[in-house]
């Protein structure tokens, strides 16, 4: 008696959303960056939008998927391949838009991510359990970083002259610069964009400083 072919397993919500995450990663974007590039609301592909208010799993719409494929120059065949990809060798870290980083409630006194409002993104593994990601907004950091780029920040990684760092002042200003010099009294920072001036901060003006260890470029 001939064996009956096995029935194809139906796609799961997790598979489809994971493929969308991989599509964004393939384009060097976060899920929200892919949504913006697709002309969609930036939160369209966020994890909070993958379930309804009553806890039911939600599928991405065919329209949003079509726009995401067009924005990332990918075909449906590519997306099907991404559906079958195995898990990435990375980890999920908290993700925040750069413009939000200066607002209160997102970091504790040590510069570690805290509070609500963070999204999540899968990125290369890091040994720092307090590592987090920031999504670049605007063009103030060109040519080093473009809008939609993701940078991973590690508060536990040692900082040396020449490193790119994220600095938050006691006044709530957050900036990404290159460390020129650091003493017990001052912090000298070089701008990544030649159109913006370098900065010199008194030590008491610095709430925290952390090293940028990876960028999606």
TrEMBL record:
InterPro entries: LexA-like (IPR039418), LexA/Signal_pep-like_sf (IPR036286), Peptidase_S24_S26A/B/C (IPR015927). SUPFAM superfamilies: LexA/Signal peptidase. Residues 94-213 form the Peptidase S24/S26A/S26B/S26C domain. Residues 51-60 have a biased composition (Basic and acidic residues). Keywords: DNA-binding, Transcription, Transcription regulation. One of its GO terms (molecular function) is DNA binding. Residues 30-63 are annotated as: Disordered. PANTHER family: FELS-1 PROPHAGE TRANSCRIPTIONAL REGULATOR, PTHR40661. This is Phage repressor protein C with HTH and peptisase S24 domain. It comes from Bradyrhizobium macuxiense.
